[in-house]
Amino acid sequence: MPLECDPTSAQVLAGRQKTRRHPAGARAGWHDGRMAESTKVELGKVQQTLFFPLLARARATRGRRPLLRDPKAVEMVQAVDFDLTAFRAPMQFPVVIRTMILDSWIRQFLAGHPAGTVVELGTGLNTRFERTDNGSVHWIDLDLPDTIELRRQFFADTGRRRMLAASLLGDDWLAEVEALPGPYFFVADGVLPYLTEEQVTGTLARIAARFPGSGLAFDSYPRVALEWEHKMAAKRDIAFWQWSCDDPRTLERFGLRLVESVTPTRPPAGVRAELPGRFRYLLPLADPVFGRGLRVNLFETAPQPPAPGTTE
Ligand SMILES: C[S@@+](CC[C@H](N)C(=O)[O-])C[C@H]1O[C@@H](n2cnc3c(N)ncnc32)[C@H](O)[C@@H]1O
Q1: Is residue 41 over pLDDT 50?
Q2: Do 203 and 134 form a contact (C-beta atoms < 8 A)?
Q3: Candidates 191, 204, 221, 240: which one to mutate for ligand 1, based on the most atoms within 8 Å of Cβ?
Q4: Of the listed ranges 28-32, 229-233, 270-274, the one predicted with least confidence
């Protein structure tokens, strides 16, 4: 679907913003091991939200005992010529643990299907491939054209990994994924809340119908979190979330089966085991703060029905 037909396009396009220049030389940074000219940023309002998780991962990496190491995020934050003030999350932990949980599900998928295909929907400047590459996975990083233009300043296509400039609301990208070897795993990290409910459920249903037996993982937020985000976004003049979901099981009617749904305070056992002791024991106590706003969900799309006339 072209962007013009996309009901979120007003938000997507309205905030297209000219490069904000910093004092000469002040933001020149390092990336790929060399001094870079400041990288210009011209992104729509929704696309700019990629700086939220990027900053959180960069700041977490620079911490004293980091839960997550994302040195490339640090380089990219230093290299962009853009005022990031509005995208400082009050707390990094939800983004960091969400990243760790989604990474762990990708590794789990790759353990069973080392040469399968992972599709990162709304990839922004995420470095999940760098964190989870097993040497044989095929990978697509999909995002809107202006985001991919920025992403190309920092990442390069290779034989197994490439960037795709497309709206996930369109159909074109589905054939590009089908051309790669299955099985497939789709991940959308911090993306779906920016779409309308109709767009989210339509996208999930299209993936389920076209890619039976695939994995699909994404974060969701209850109505109460949407209200909090709207207040914060209005103050900072940034994009508003549009979709909330109080119960991820309600999404099963779109051809999905919910395999696991966790909160940041009760992550999967494998992720919990990676956390330092103080986190493992204290996290459940943080349920009232971190346990109610965010869920990270792992779904499976319904398996392919047997062809007529065949026996299972
Ligand atoms: C909060 S950012 C998350 C970025 C990335 N997933 C991460 O974790 O760093 C939301 C991302 O969704 C992308 N996005 C929003 N609407 C989209 C659409 N219709 N098609 C593809 N990407 C979209 C934005 O461009 C942006 O990169």
Answers
A1: yes
A2: no
A3: 191
A4: 28-32
Residue spans per domain, the chain: 7-87, 93-301
State the burial class of residue 86 (Cβ atoms within 10 Å of its Cβ: 0-12, 13-18, 19+): middle
Ligand 1 centroid to Cα of residue 170, in Å, is: 14
Distance from Cα 191 to the centre of ligand 1, integer Å: 5
Residue 137: closest CA among 154, 156, 155, 120: 120
Give the model's pLDDT for residue 311: 57
- Return the best residue to mutate from 6, 43, 50, 218 for the ligand 1 pocket (most ligand atoms within 8 A of CB): 50
Q: Quick one: which atom of ligand 1 is closest to the CA of 199?
A: 19
CATH topology of domain 93-301: Rossmann fold (3.40.50)
CA–CA gap between residue 80 and residue 151 (Å, rounded) = 11
pLDDT tens digit string along 184-238? 999 999 999 999 999 999 999 999 999 999 999 999 999 999 999 999 999 999 9
Among 9, 128, 144, 221, say which to mutate for ligand 1: greatest number of ligand atoms within 8 Å of CB. 144
pTM for this prediction: 0.89
Atom of ligand 1 nearest to the CA of 43: 25
| Res 64: pLDDT | 85
DSSP class of residue 263 equals B
